[in-house]
Design a protein that fits this description.
Length: about 280
């Protein structure tokens, strides 16, 4: 196939760290071709951990919110990470990390709301690059003149622009393995966003994998409400991505440690008794 195959994997902390999904990405791209790093999110900027194989930062000040924040001061998009510049002129730096294999990209798609106008692009050495910007309602695609591993984007915005992430594409055949993970997330957390299906639609997924349920399992579980939460998220994704296959995985096995204790009276060397707790 000449068009890349796209897989989107949605989950909680297991996916956010990108340890298992990073290995799956590497193995699949080894066999079927590396179309690019794919989706990257401003997780560190929003106040949490992010994978080590990409860079998403800025010299400009931003207001930030993450998915598990109790109160959202701004829109939270489908990635669960939300950053908003404090002025209408700002800069963002996006790229792949030199710590891993060389993974260049020749186009970047930035996901956001409100109008974004790209004013300039520089490479990692500060050299200005020619570019072509293709705006759309929910994202802006930036075409680069040559493969890069890191770029800085200077832009202006109208209104309360909020940015959610970006895709890095090599514009070559192969496979994308996009990972969307948020610590502590559950089905209902993603339902709170409301438009996850529409958000991932520009990624053109052939397969959507949902790995949730772990965090629900560690609390009081209303099975009826849980089933409705699953149905709501699946329906939302399916409505916006009717040609995508959906795969739901169950949480991995774990054991909750339970230690039984008891109070006993013991005598010390002086013959005095005291009460202690023993397991």
């Amino acid at each position: 196939a000449t068009s890349p195959v796209s897989i989107v994997h949605i989950g909680d902390s297991h996916i956010q760290a990108d340890i298992s999904t990073g290995t799956v990405r590497e193995l699949l791209q080894y066999d079927f071709g590396n179309a690019g790093r794919g989706l990257v999110s401003p997780l560190k900027m929003s106040g949490t951990n992010e994978p080590a194989d990409y860079t998403f930062n800025s010299r400009s000040p931003w207001n930030t919110v993450k998915l598990m924040s109790p109160n959202w001061r701004q829109t939270v998009g489908f990635t669960g990470a939300s950053i908003r510049p404090t002025s209408n002129t700002s800069e963002i730096t996006i790229g792949t990390s030199g710590k891993d294999d060389y993974n260049p990209f020749s186009s970047v798609t930035i996901f956001h709301n409100v109008k974004l106008t790209v004013k300039g692009i520089t490479d990692e050495n500060g050299n200005s690059l020619s570019f072509r910007s293709i705006p759309s309602r929910d994202y802006t695609q930036i075409m680069l003149p040559s493969p890069q591993t890191k770029i800085s984007v200077d832009f202006t915005s109208a209104g309360d622009l909020t940015m959610f992430g970006a895709t890095l594409s090599g514009d070559r055949p192969g496979l994308f393995y996009h990972a969307i993970g948020n610590n502590g997330a559950a089905y209902e957390t993603y339902n709170r966003i409301g438009n996850v299906g529409a958000g991932i639609s520009p990624l053109r997924p052939s397969l959507v994998i949902i790995s949730l349920g772990t965090n629900e399992g560690f609390g009081r579980l209303d099975t009826g409400a849980f089933a409705r939460s699953i149905d709501r998220l699946v329906s939302n994704i399916r409505a916006a991505n009717p040609d995508a296959l959906l795969l739901l995985t169950t949480p991995m096995e774990c054991h909750k440690r339970v230690t039984k204790t008891r109070k006993v009276r013991v005598k010390n060397k002086k013959g005095r008794y005291r009460t202690v707790t023993r397991t």
